[in-house]
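Supplementary notes for students who missed Thursday's class. We covered one full example, reproduced here. Read the sequence, then the structure, then the short commentary at the end.
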Amino acid sequence: MRTRTRPRAWRPRTWVLILAALFALLQLGTVTGRDTPDTKNYLAYALSLRGEDRRETASG
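Structure (token representation):
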């Protein structure tokens, strides 16, 4: 006689992976492609270390 087995419930680890993937997809949706003020400051600092003119670094 064959007994039927119930389908396994989703494990907590599976739910965590699903939530992590959903979170990652939502984060990708918020990317705008614009530079942040921090990015511009880092670029200006790097150019000034390289010896660029102050006006050139400000326009960065």
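Commentary. The helical segments are 12-29, 37-50, 54-59. The mean pLDDT is 78. If anything here is unclear, bring it to office hours.
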